[in-house]
Design brief:
The complex is a heterodimer of chains A (149) and B (255). In chain A, 69% of the residues lie in helices and 0% in strands. In chain A, helix 1 crosses helix 2, helix 1 runs parallel beside helix 3 and helix 3 packs across helix 7. Chain A is globular and about 40 Å long. The two termini of chain A are 29 Å apart. The mean pLDDT of chain A is 78. Chain B has a 5-stranded mixed sheet with strand order 1-2-3-4-5. The longest helix of chain B has 29 residues. The chains are: A mainly alpha (149), B alpha+beta (255). Chains A and B meet through helix 1, helix 2, helix 3, helix 5 and helix 6 of A and helix 1, helix 2, helix 3, helix 4 and helix 5 of B.
């Protein structure tokens, strides 16, 4: 339960919303259990449900802010914000589309293919987002290139 | 990498509330009552129980699911609180593959009955039913050269608690389930013989006599289950009481 709850928490940024997202996700999972073709993919399957549920849930609450690529340049110049490398500050400040690839790749140790499946993206887009996320977080990309390839 | 490792350590220190699953079910109950979709929600809860049963009887599925944090926890919760099946007692290996398959189908039918009972419980009791338990067990009553007799028991701790017991006897040579009538010669009135013996014996079986005194003796045998013991004697099962029919009583009419 912890892993899924953490993933939900990374969207919600608070315990109450994370619990609601998991509850709703469980309900959706039981409804869609027939769509699970291979039990070995169950984690990615359920994480996809959590991600979709979280976005829908937070949009309803007006708490979901999608940022486009034009915002990136502006973010990169806010140097001070990302000098604090705590997880809490990262999930509060990093745009969703970068935060979710960081969480799935570095914290959940998922493959690029799994992340692409969960986020309904192609792998190149996942790589691009990871690259940009690390750049925003001012992580040494040369050191972390193995995680992106 | 230290920067990411620090964040990862912080991320991994986050723990889900222990009661999250219970709260989720309660939430389903509240939502369903408010939106008038209670029946649908309850069916989903029953699906959880069904999933747990499937996991119980399929070790391969269980190991796959156990690696998944959320579903593993759900399954563990449902399994430990709701339904336990003692699969160790399943008589695999005692019969030919076709007979085992046939018998397995019979046992699965029994499991379906358990699932139906669970769904009824959930409808009647709401999410509280998920805190209660239903257990089933398959016992080998006898295993001779000719026959295999099994007893499948299902027990629920719901209030009022319930207990059911079904018997299955398999002809190992023919690979078919055997009914009481199959044991006797065609055209013989085995019911009359058995009923006469039971009526003679019942005064000594006070509890059973009290239970069955209002039943038409002619129909008594129709409502009675049976199995064959290790000595191939017919044992009639009446509400938990077993009546062994001596062979000399029925030897003339047995096949």
């Amino acid at each position: 339960m912890d892993s899924a709850y953490r993933f939900a928490y990374s969207y919600a940024k608070n315990k109450e919303d994370a619990e609601d997202i998991i509850s709703e996700s469980l309900l959706r999972a039981w409804k869609a259990i027939d769509s699970l073709r291979d039990e070995r993919n169950m984690k990615a399957w359920f994480f996809k449900i959590i991600g979709n549920t979280a976005v829908t849930y937070l949009k309803k609450k007006g708490a979901y802010i999608a940022m486009d690529d034009n915002d990136l340049e502006r973010l990169e110049y806010k140097e001070d914000k990302y000098n604090d490398y705590s997880f809490e500050s990262m999930i509060k400040n990093l745009p969703e589309k970068y935060k979710e690839v960081i969480v799935l790749r570095f914290f959940e140790d998922m493959s690029l293919a799994q992340i692409a499946e969960i986020l309904s993206l192609n792998e190149n887009t996942v790589k691009t987002r990871l690259y940009r996320a690390l750049k925003i977080l001012k992580v040494d990309i040369e050191q972390e290139v193995r995680w992106i390839s | 990498m230290d920067k990411l490792n620090n964040m990862k350590r912080e991320y991994e220190s986050i723990s889900a509330p222990e009661n999250l699953y219970t709260e989720a079910l309660e939430l389903f109950g509240r939502q369903s009552r408010g939106r008038g979709i209670r029946r649908k929600i309850l069916s989903l809860a029953a699906a959880a129980a069904l999933f747990a049963i499937i996991v119980n009887v399929c070790p391969g599925v269980a190991s796959a699911v156990s690696a998944v944090p959320v579903l593993g926890t759900v399954v563990d919760t449902v399994t430990s609180n709701r339904h336990k099946e003692n699969t160790d007692d399943r008589p695999l290996g005692l019969l030919g593959s076709e007979t085992e398959q046939m018998l397995s189908g019979q046992l699965d039918e029994n499991a379906q009955a358990v699932i139906a009972a669970i769904e009824e419980d959930i409808i009647a009791y709401g999410v509280e039913a998920l805190k209660m338990s239903v257990s089933s067990q398959c016992l080998v009553k006898s295993d001779t050269d000719s026959y295999l007799s099994l007893n499948v028991c299902v027990e629920s701790n719901l209030s009022p608690s319930s207990y059911s017991s079904e018997y299955y006897t398999v002809d190992k040579e023919k690979g078919v389930l055997v009914g009481l009538s199959d044991l006797f010669k065609d055209g013989c009135d085995y019911k009359a013989v058995l009923t006469e013996y039971i009526e003679k014996e019942l005064p000594e079986l006070n509890d059973v006599a009290a239970l069955y005194k209002d039943i038409d003796p002619a129909k008594l045998i129709d409502t009675t289950e049976f199995y064959l013991d290790e000595e191939n004697r017919v044992v009639l099962c009446m509400d938990g009481t077993e009546i062994v029919i001596p062979n000399e009583i029925i030897e003339d009419i047995l096949k």
